[in-house]
Specification:
461 residues; alpha/beta; FAD/NAD(P)-binding domain; Enolase-like, domain 1; 3 domains; seven-stranded mixed beta sheet; globular; binds flavin-adenine dinucleotide; binds 1,4-dihydronicotinamide adenine dinucleotide
C-alpha cells in the first residue's frame, strides 16, 4: 500500500495549495481528485472560466456601444459565441495545466478517483480502473462545494442548470431567468445580458448581494438596472418546469415566467457525501459543513478540513489561506488566517469589492465609526477612462482611526481593494492611507481621497 506523509482529498485552491505548501516543507504528498483536470471548481468551472467570459463579453459590449465615445468607429460587430467559449476553455486548460506542472515540480503524487476515508490514516481511491489504497500520517479534506438547489426545482443539466451550464450555453438564451442575486447570479447574468439575452433576476430578499454593504448594494442595483438587467426582489420561486424548448418558472403571488433557460444561483453546499466521515465520528454543522477547530482539525486529530467544505466565505483565496495555515501549523506548529481581511469581489461592471466590516455590522455592534466617501466622478483617471460611475467608502474607528472596512463600487474595484487589504493587515489607520503617496493620475487616488474624507479633508471635492 503506497504510504505518504499527507493525503489531500480534493485538488481545488484549498487542496492543491495545501499539497504544494506541504511538499515545499518536505512532506511526501498524495493528492486525490475525481477529475483529470486539476484546480477544482475554481479553475475548471468557477473563478477562471467566469472571469474569462466576463472579460470577453465586456469586450463585445465595448466594441458595440462604448468605443464610439472614444472616437473609435467600429462597424459590423458580431458575436462568435463558439470562439468565445473555446477561448474560455483554453484559458481554463492553461490554468489546469499550470497546476499539473506545479505538482510535477513539487513531486506531488496525483491519484485520480473519489477519495473515501476508510479509517484513520487510510484513504481508498475509487478510480475508473479499480480502487487504490493509500496510507498517510495526516489527511486534509478539501472537497469543496457544489451548486445548491431549491425545493420544487430539479436541475436537468440543460435548460435548468447551475453555474457550470451557464458557462457553456450553446446559444445566447432569448430569455434567461436567474434565481438568486448573489455573486454567481450577477456575474453570469451580466455575461449573458451583454451577449444579448433578456435577463430577469429573481431574488428572495428585498435587496441584492446580501452580506455586502447595503449602500453599495443599492448603488449596484441601480447600475445593473441601467445596464438592462431586470430584477424582481422579494420573489419566492416555488417551481421550475421544462416544457419542450422552454421553462416555466412559478413565483409565489405572481404570474409564472416563461423563459428559455434558468440559472439557479442560490448558494452552494459542501461536498461531504461518500467521504466516510460519519463512520469516523466527524461532525457536520447544521449547514452540512465539517466542524473544525482553530487549527483546522476535525474530531479526529490527524484529519483536517479546509476551504468551502468548512465554515466561512466560499472563496478561493480563503481556501488558499487556510491551506497554507493548516499545513504550516501541522509541520511547524504555527499557522494563522486573518479572517477580518478576506476581501470579496463581484467581477461585474461596475465591479464591487469589499473588505472588513460593513456599516450595518458596525451599527449593530455599537462601534462608533467615521466615514469617508469619494466618488469616481471626481477622479481624473476615471474621467479619462470614461468610467466615472461609483465610489469608495472608508470606515474607520471614531477614536483610534483604525480602518475597519473599505467598500468600493466602480471600475477595477477588485484591484483597488488590495491596498485596503494590505493596510488593514498591518493595522493601518485611515490617516496612514491618506498620507501615503499615490501616483497621479490613478484610480488609487480615490481610495486616498476617501481616507482623507474620514477626517473631512478630501482635496478634490
Ligand atoms: P473546490 O475548488 O470545490 O475543489 C474541490 C475538489 O475536490 C473538486 O475538484 C471536487 O471535484 C473534488 N472532490 C470532491 N469530493 C471528492 C472526493 N470524495 N474525492 C476526490 N475528489 C473530490 N471564488 C473566488 O474567490 N473568486 C471568484 O472569482 C470565484 N468565482 C466563482 C465562480 C463560480 C461560477 C463558482 C461556482 C465559484 C466561484 N468562486 C470564486 C468560489 C471558488 O470556486 C471556491 O470558493 C473554491 O473553488 C473553493 O476551493 P476548495 O478547494 O475548497 O474546493
Ligand atoms: P450567493 O450566496 O452569493 O447568493 C445567493 C443569492 O440567492 C442570495 O442573494 C440569496 O438571498 C438568494 N436566494 C437564496 N434562496 C433564494 C430563493 N429561494 N429564491 C431566490 N433567491 C434566493 O450564492 P451564489 O451566487 O450561488 O454563489 C455561491 C458562492 O460562490 C458565493 O457565495 C461565493 O462565495 C462564491 N462565488 C464567488 C465569486 C467571486 O468571488 N467573484 C463568484 C461566484 C461565486
Amino acid at each position: 500500500m503506497p504510504k505518504h506523509d499527507l493525503i489531500v482529498i480534493g485538488a481545488g485552491p484549498g487542496g492543491y495549495v495545501a499539497a504544494i505548501r506541504a511538499a515545499q516543507l518536505g512532506l511526501d504528498v498524495a493528492s486525490v481528485d475525481e477529475h483529470e483536470q486539476l484546480g477544482g471548481t475554481c479553475v475548471r468551472v468557477g473563478c477562471i472560466p467566469s472571469k474569462a467570459l466576463l472579460e470577453s463579453s465586456e469586450h463585445y459590449l465595448m466594441a458595440r456601444t462604448h468605443l464610439e465615445a472614444h472616437g473609435v468607429a467600429v462597424a459590423g460587430v458580431t458575436l462568435d459565441l463558439e470562439r468565445m467559449l473555446a477561448r474560455k476553455d483554453a484559458v481554463v486548460k492553461s490554468n489546469t495545466d499550470g497546476v499539473a506542472y506545479l505538482y510535477k515540480k513539487n513531486g506531488i503524487s496525483h491519484y485520480r478517483g473519489r477519495g473515501e476515508i476508510v479509517a484513520e490514516g487510510r484513504v481508498k481511491v475509487h478510480g475508473s480502473d479499480g480502487d487504490t489504497d493509500l496510507e498517510a500520517d495526516h489527511i486534509i479534506i478539501a472537497t469543496g462545494s457544489q451548486v445548491a438547489t431549491l425545493p420544487g426545482i430539479e436541475l436537468d443539466g440543460d435548460r435548468i442548470g447551475g453555474s457550470t451550464e451557464a458557462l457553456s450555453y450553446p446559444e445566447v438564451p432569448g430569455h434567461l431567468v436567474v434565481i438568486g442575486a448573489g455573486y454567481i447570479g450577477l456575474e453570469l447574468g451580466s455575461v449573458w445580458k451583454r451577449l444579448g439575452s433578456k435577463v430577469t433576476v429573481l431574488e428572495y430578499l428585498d435587496r441584492i448581494l446580501p452580506g455586502m454593504d447595503a449602500e453599495l448594494a443599492k448603488e449596484a442595483l441601480k447600475s445593473f438596472k441601467k445596464r438592462g438587467l431586470e430584477f424582481r426582489l422579494k420573489s419566492k420561486v416555488t417551481s421550475a418546469r421544462v416544457d419542450g424548448e422552454h421553462v416555466s418558472v412559478e413565483v409565489e403571488g405572481a404570474d409564472a415566467i416563461a423563459c428559455d433557460r434558468v440559472l439557479v444561483a442560490v448558494g452552494r453546499r459542501p461536498n461531504t457525501a461518500g467521504l466516510g466521515i460519519e463512520a469516523l465520528g466527524i461532525a457536520l454543522d447544521p449547514q452540512g459543513r465539517i466542524i473544525v477547530d482553530d487549527d483546522f482539525r476535525t474530531a479526529i486529530p490527524s484529519i483536517y478540513a479546509i476551504g468551502d467544505v468548512i465554515a466561512g466565505p466560499m472563496l478561493a483565496h480563503k481556501a488558499e489561506e487556510e491551506a497554507v495555515a493548516c499545513v504550516e501549523k501541522l509541520v511547524t506548529g504555527y499557522g494563522h488566517v486573518d479572517y477580518d481581511t478576506v476581501p470579496g469581489i463581484v467581477y461585474t461592471e461596475p465591479e464591487i469589492a469589499s473588505v472588513g466590516k460593513t456599516e450595518e455590522q458596525l451599527v449593530e455592534a455599537g462601534i462608533a465609526y467615521s466615514k469617508g466617501v469619494f466618488p469616481y466622478q471626481a477622479n481624473g483617471r476615471a474621467r479619462a477612462l470614461g468610467q466615472t460611475e461609483g465610489k469608495v467608502k472608508v470606515l474607520a474607528d471614531a477614536e483610534s482611526d483604525r480602518i475597519l472596512g473599505v467598500h468600493i463600487i466602480g471600475a477595477r474595484a477588485g484591484d483597488l481593494i488590495a491596498e485596503a487589504v494590505a493596510a488593514m493587515t498591518f493595522g493601518a489607520s485611515a490617516e496612514d492611507i491618506a498620507r501615503t503617496v499615490h501616483a497621479h493620475p490613478t484610480l488609487s487616488e480615490i481610495l486616498k481621497e476617501a481616507a482623507l474624507g474620514v477626517a473631512g479633508r478630501s482635496i478634490h471635492i
